[in-house]
Design a protein that fits this description.
Elements: H1 2-24, H2 26-62, H3 66-96, H4 107-139, H5 143-167, H6 171-195, H7 210-244, H8 247-283, H9 287-314, H10 316-321, H11 330-341, H12 346-362, H13 365-391, H14 393-419, H15 426-430, E1 443-448, H16 451-467, H17 472-492, E2 503-510, E3 513-520, H18 527-533, H19 543-551, E4 554-560, E5 563-569
Antiparallel strand pairs: 1-2, 2-3, 3-5, 4-5
Length: 570
């Protein structure tokens, strides 16, 4: 779902290019190019809020800090709304004061850019708020709704691009307005979920706090650092290509990128999922799950990208023919070479992106800046400057591969230096602190898949608690509470649909307490709300749930990524 979401963003760009090139003219294409830095800046600002809020919310969800989660959500929506209104006002002001003259001397292009600024200003609030909601809906396992919103947005943009550009002849103003209308549809389809009463996250004016705003920016700005480096790299590399190859090299890059960008959505979609999971794992201080998330991301997704890369290499010539017809033309050869060489760097990008994501979620600031600087500027610029004079565009394409290898080596070197020994497993490569989470001897994991398992698991938990030196009363309560809550899930959750379900149980010893974490993939069910809707005077109803709430030191429930998560501290 996340890959499809990333892909739809790329499709929007293709729609703009097709209408501008076929129905408006060269000045519109130039205006779109000049608007690109503004688009990147908008993406960078959005990334700060998206990453910062998503990581913070996921951490608090994992730690079962419900009020803090709600506060971060409300604060993020509030500050994003304010920033989006300011951005919209600046675009209106730029269009009214002919700000385009600062970017181009061409009168026709300047007029087109000013009209484009005016059209995009209408949709700026919807663009920024829509991106925030898509991140939060993913946390609530509502990615399907985000996908539907994206499809509706693309359809809206396509229809209104035709009506406003071809039928009404509003040229680039119509194209920009069509994008804005698509953004509003994207926002409205998503926001309906938060008015349905089904959402875990609730918007509250009183919940917005200045302290949370600072935390969001502090956590999220590192996600935007790479965008800044990438922008700087683009300016420098373009200058090098013009100097050593000429404009034909830029044409080949533009043609290849228009196709390759569709496939770069795969690692970025995987990254979006990893960011959510890793943040929850860190909030739960779940060492094993954090390691498993990284292991799955690498060992399942790298082979996937290898297959994609092989397909692109095999189709190099047919893909090149989409843009250029003459095989003898140098630009044809350079484009085909791009399809044969650049895809080899894609599997390496998975490694880089996953470790960058982990560094951001875990607050490893030095690693974040190291990887951003190496990937963003240092490696690509250095290798391009060295190889372009010797090998032409092939040297530039090889720089992508060398960049990926260098970043992978930097990840290993970082772990080697920090741990003072060569990393031999995933935990060591990730440099997970020794005091993170609990030791294996202080944790037990069990799964329940049928009713008959509940009693035996309850006994296992009591025996385990006794073996860890817990007093007899708390050992007994641990088994009893687990039997009641897990049994309740099996009895009332497993038979609500035709899917197969499981209850994953973790018993943790921490701070002289025993903590039971019960996680299931059934329909949302909050035991505390069940208590509220039943008459407390009827002692025969819900006696087991009431017993747990009365006897436990603390009970907290959350729905995380579509899973019911109940934490019982005894």
């Amino acid at each position: 779902m996340q890959i499809l979401l990333e892909l739809m963003s790329a499709v929007n760009g293709i729609i703009s290019g097709l209408f501008a090139g076929n129905f408006i003219g060269a000045e519109a294409m130039a205006a779109i190019g000049l608007y690109s830095p503004i688009k990147k800046l908008t993406a960078a600002v959005s990334t700060i809020f998206v990453c910062g809020a998503q990581i913070s919310c996921a951490r608090y969800m994992g730690a079962n800090q419900v009020e803090r989660t709600q506060s971060v959500f409300s604060t993020d929506i509030f500050i994003t709304g304010v920033v989006s209104l300011i951005a919209s006002a600046l675009l209106f002001l730029g269009a009214a004061t002919d700000a385009a003259r600062l970017m181009t001397a061409d009168a026709a292009v300047r007029i087109s850019l000013n009209r484009s600024l005016l059209g995009h200003a209408v949709g700026m609030p919807a663009l920024l708020l829509g991106r925030q909601l898509s991140a939060f809906l993913s946390l609530e396992n509502q990615t399907r709704r985000v996908t539907i919103a994206s499809l509706c947005s693309i359809g809206t943009k396509l229809v209104f691009s035709y009506l406003l550009v071809v039928v009404i002849d509003l040229d680039i103003l119509g194209l920009a307005l069509a994008s804005s209308l698509g953004n509003w549809v994207f926002l409205l389809v998503q926001i309906q979920y938060y008015f349905s009463g089904k959402s875990v996250l609730k918007l509250s004016k009183a919940g917005a706090r200045l302290k949370d705003a600072a935390e969001i920016v502090k956590t999220g700005y590192t996600g935007a650092v790479n965008n800044g480096y990438q922008t700087l790299r683009g300016f420098i590399v373009n200058a090098l290509i013009i100097q050593f190859v000429g404009s034909a090299g830029l044409s080949a890059c533009a043609a290849a990128d228009s196709v390759l960008n569709l496939f770069w959505t795969i690692p970025f979609g995987i990254l979006a999922v990893s960011r959510m999971l890793m943040s929850v794992n860190i909030g739960e201080e779940d060492r094993q799950s954090l390691t498993d998330t990284m292991r799955v991301s690498l060992f399942r997704c790298v082979p996937l990208m290898c297959c994609v890369s092989a397909a692109l290499i095999a189709l190099a010539v047919p893909l090149t023919r989409l843009f250029f017809r003459d095989p003898a033309d140098p630009v044809f050869q350079m484009t085909a070479a791009a399809f044969r060489i650049v895809p080899l760097s894609m599997p390496l990008s998975i490694i880089l992106l996953q470790f960058s994501c982990y560094a951001q979620a875990s607050g490893k600031q030095f690693l974040i800046h190291l990887l951003s600087a190496l990937d963003g500027v240092v490696c690509m610029v250095s290798f391009s400057a060295l190889l372009l004079p010797l090998l032409g565009m092939n040297g530039f394409y090889l720089a992508y591969i060398l960049n990926g290898l260098t970043c992978a080596a930097a990840i290993v070197s970082y772990a080697w230096i920090k741990r003072k020994k060569f990393p031999r497993n995933m935990e060591q490569l990730m440099v997970i602190p020794d005091d993170f989470g609990v030791a294996k001897c202080d944790r037990m994991d069990i799964s329940v898949r049928r009713k008959n398992d509940v009693m035996s698991v309850s006994k296992q938990v009591m025996d385990y608690c006794r073996s860890r030196g817990l007093d007899e009363m708390r050992a007994y309560l641990s088994g009893l509470f687990l039997e009641e809550m897990a049994g309740n899930v099996v009895d009332h959750g497993f038979n609500k649909d035709k899917k197969s379900h499981s209850v994953d149980i973790r018993v943790i010893f921490k701070d002289d307490d025993v903590i039971l974490r019960i996680k299931d993939d059934c329909i949302p069910f909050n035991p505390a709300e069940w208590q509220d809707i039943h008459d407390p005077r009827d002692r025969l109803k819900g006696v087991g749930i009431r017993m747990v709430y009365l006897g436990a030191k603390d009970v907290k429930y959350q729905n995380i990524l579509g899973l019911n998560v109940l934490m019982i501290r005894i």
